[in-house]
Amino acid sequence: MLSLNVLVVGEGISVSKIRSSKYLNKLYITSEKEVSDCLNIRFNTFQELAQKCKSLQIDIVLVEDEKYILQGIADVLKINYVNCIAVTSKWTDLELNSDFAEVLLKKYNFDLPKKLLVPLEFPVIVKTKKFIKKANSIQEVIDIKQDIYNYSQELAQSVKLEEFVDGNKEIITSIYDGKNLVTFPNANIPPVILNKYHEKLLNMLTSEQADFTGFINSNVILKSEKLYNIGFSFEYRDLPENVDILYLVNSAVYQKLNELTL
């Protein structure tokens, strides 16, 4: 039977699920807070953390803290041959750079809110590479654009207007292993619609040769049997009760997610 040493980078949201796994040997954490029955690891750089993981013979690092994911922790651990459950820096642009995300999503036929040249009805979404805000009038559009200009003239050049899709906001959680994708059920999204979204996401990641092993959360709006993608995030989200998290992430490390039955 597997006997895994696991490090959780973050505040320990997943700790209770990891503790209940029959595959756990030792559990480490990097939280600022003391967490009972966990050995705490401190680090100043990702390189230092990688060396500590090697000396402690840690089998898997699960990164919960999205701040570290966006700073590129997966790249450093990967270079040092430490198994890390987190998105690499290229793919964090799905969240950090809306232009990068939009190009890919259009290429793979995801449903997206329409771009507007002139707002004919309100509300509308005012969007840049890094910011998304809702405007309820033309004056609010003007004010938001001015705020963006005051913050960054360069960023102001990327301002776009987008239709406001009035539907149910949902989050779809998936895990990718560099080859296979598992998408977890969402009680508010019909399975047929969710499966179509899953296939699009898998096609995009595999066709673009995505090189990460980690969780990817799709922020969507469900309207008229369509899922409109409005962004991504990469923090760890709680999983269904029947999922053994260590069996899941270990399968991801060895690109065996396709063998799982959920």
Summarize the structure.
This protein has helices spanning 15-19, 46-55, 66-70, 73-79, 89-96, 98-107, 138-151, 153-156, 191-207, 245-253, and strands at 4-9, 24-29, 39-40, 60-63, 84-85, 115-116, 124-127, 132-135, 160-163, 168-176, 181-183, 214-223, 226-233. The chain has 262 residues and is an alpha/beta fold. The strands form three sheets. A five-stranded parallel β-sheet has the order 3-2-1-4-5.
Q: CATH superfamily of the largest domain, please?
A: ATP-grasp fold, B domain
Q: SSE order in H/E notation?
A: EHEEHEHHEHHEEEHHEEEHEEH
How many helices in DSSP terms?
10
Please name the CATH topology of the largest domain: D-amino Acid Aminotransferase, Chain A, domain 1
| Level-1 CATH class name of the largest domain | Alpha Beta
The fraction of residues assigned to DSSP E strands is 15-25%
Give me the CATH architecture of the largest domain, please.
Answer: 2-Layer Sandwich
Strand order of the largest sheet: 3-2-1-4-5
Query: Could you give the count of β-strands?
Result: 13
Helix content: 25-40%
| Rg (C-alpha, Å) | 20 Å
| Average pLDDT figure | 94
Q: How many angstroms does the end-to-end distance come to?
A: 20 Å
Low-confidence stretches: none
Give the overall silhouette. Answer: globular
Structure description:
With 262 residues, this protein is α/β, with parallel strands linked by helices. The protein has 10 helices and 13 strands. It has 3 domains: 4-86, Rossmann fold (3-Layer(aba) Sandwich); 91-111 and 167-259, ATP-grasp fold, B domain (D-amino Acid Aminotransferase, Chain A, domain 1, 2-Layer Sandwich); 115-163, no CATH class. 34% of the residues lie in helices and 24% in strands. Strand 1, helix 1 (15-19) and strand 2 (24-29) form a beta-alpha-beta unit. Helix 5 crosses helix 6. It is globular.
